[in-house]
Amino acid sequence: MTKYNELQVEANKNIKRVGRGIASGQGKTAGRGTKGQKARTGKKLRPTFAGGSGALARRTPKLKGFKSLRTPAQIVYLDHLNVFKGKTADNFSLFNAGLISSPYQAVKVILRGELTETVKLHVSSASKSVKEAVTKAGGTFVKTAVPLKKGTKAAETTEK
């Protein structure tokens, strides 16, 4: 039994020479069948062509409605904020704590459980009940814009 690494394989395979007589095995029609548009030389059909019966893309039903390009806000629950005892909870601190997947997206805090610690909340949005719960616990809520990623071009201009 030959091993895979001992196989004798040529890098360049010879092309099949079609239409070179009856004895070649690919003579006469050269594998194209008989007659028709595909048998003729110089004529190519696009892959979606279906014989003039209407394109497949035109015949298939389309999805209704539309898909929104807006990314939804990341959700953080109120009882998760008890980790930030007397500290500021913003996008980056929430990201470092593992509560959100990206610090560069909108964050909304919604009510679940109760807040027992004082927290300074600096996120893009929070529900009305969360704002009341934060102020009741002795903290503050400040609506802040979503931080932007620092581009590579901006970093190059500041270095020069």
Explain what this protein looks like in three dimensions.
This protein has 160 residues and is of the alpha/beta class. 17% of the residues lie in helices and 13% in strands. The chain contains 4 helices and 6 strands. It has helices at residues 56-59, 91-96, 128-136, 152-159, and strands at 74-77, 88-90, 107-110, 120-123, 125-126, 140-143. The chain has a 3-stranded parallel sheet with strand order 1-3-5. Strands 2-4-6 form a 3-stranded parallel sheet. The protein is elongated, with a radius of gyration of 33 Å.
Question: Gist?
Answer:
The protein is 17% helix and 13% strand.
Instruction: Categorize the overall geometry.
Output: elongated
Report the structural category: alpha/beta
Spell out the helices and strands N to C: HEEHEEEHEH
The CATH class designation of the domain at 74-143 is Alpha Beta
**Unreliable stretches, pLDDT < 50, 5 or more residues?**
none
Average pLDDT, all residues: 88
Indicate the CATH architecture of the domain at 74-143: Ribosomal Protein L15, Chain: K, domain 2
Over the alpha carbons, how many angstroms does the gyration radius reach? 33 Å
Number of continuous helical runs: 4
Strand order of the largest sheet: 1-3-5
Helix proportion of residues, in percent?
10-25%
Could you name the CATH topology of the domain at 74-143? Ribosomal Protein L15, Chain: K, domain 2
Distance N to C terminus: 65 Å
SS elements, strand count: 6
Described by strand count, sense and barrel closure, the largest sheet is:
3 strands, parallel
Kindly report the oligomeric state of this protein.
single chain
Q: What fraction strand?
A: 5-15%
